[in-house]
Amino acid sequence: MRLTVDHSTHYHFDGHVAYALQQLRLTPKERPGQQVIHDWTVEVEGGSRQLHYTDHHGNGVDLVSVDSGAPELVIHCTGEVELVTWDGVIGAHRGAMPLWTFLRPTPLTRAGRQVRSLAANLGRDFASDIERAHALSALILDRLPWRAGITDADTTVEQALAGEGGVCQDHAHIFVAAMRHLGHPARYVSGYLMMNDRTQQDATHAWAEAHFDHIGWIGFDISNGHSPDQRYIRVATGLDYRDAAPVRGMRYGAAQENLVVQLQVQQ
């Protein structure tokens, strides 16, 4: 399957921005089963690309500076990616980060009382660790229904579980925290998903991957209740959202920002 992506992120500033830098993790990972067919382009208005580098998780990163005093910043990504059916299996661990790193908690994914209780409620009657991971995915969605506007980018797993709903970022974080608590390396994934019922979207997607002996990494889309297939484009991975955020940065100045995201993913 070939998917085309047209993704725009538009920041409008209501005051003077003296200095700002943004890290963009918006370039899909090349791997068996996922190949960029035509050049993936990242265009910037209201700023300039300073450099491109590969981070410690193997993510392609563009560093963008915002023009001093610019009223807006527009980031536009386009490209075409060819994917094959992989049923969530990524395979053997690769890259600079040792596997044990993915057992390490982060401030967003530190397992507390609620995550430990969630894991304990799974029980032990499973034919395999993979079956238990799928059961965990279903339990998370049952415990925390998908609901926007309740959490934000800084919500921890314990805060999310104390609330009444969450989004894909929360689901992925909780799965990662619980799998690490159960002894499995786990990581956060950001990327694109072609939805069957719509072309226009207002955000990228997030899911999780866990590592199993003799198989390697396997993906779990907790929010949709299945493993990723050929409709999913993997863009960035990390210990949590902060490692894999599509756009993340800092700025100096008193200006507030208004963010509008337009995204199309289609075959």
Task: Describe the fold and architecture.
The chain is of the alpha+beta class. The protein folds into 2 domains: 2-83 and 247-266, Immunoglobulin-like (Sandwich); 89-244, Roll (C8orf32 fold). The protein contains 5 helices and 14 strands. It has helices spanning 113-120, 129-143, 157-161, 168-181, 241-244; strands spanning 2-13, 19-27, 34-45, 47-54, 60-66, 72-83, 89-91, 186-193, 200-201, 205-212, 216-220, 232-238, 247-252, 257-266. It has a 5-stranded antiparallel β-sheet, with no helix packed on it. Strand 4 and strand 5 (60-66) form a beta hairpin. Helix 2 packs across helix 4 (168-181). The chain is globular and about 60 Å long. The chain starts with a strand and ends with a strand. This is Transglutaminase-like putative cysteine protease. Residues 160-224 form the Transglutaminase-like domain. GO terms for molecular function: peptidase activity. It comes from Sphingopyxis panaciterrulae.
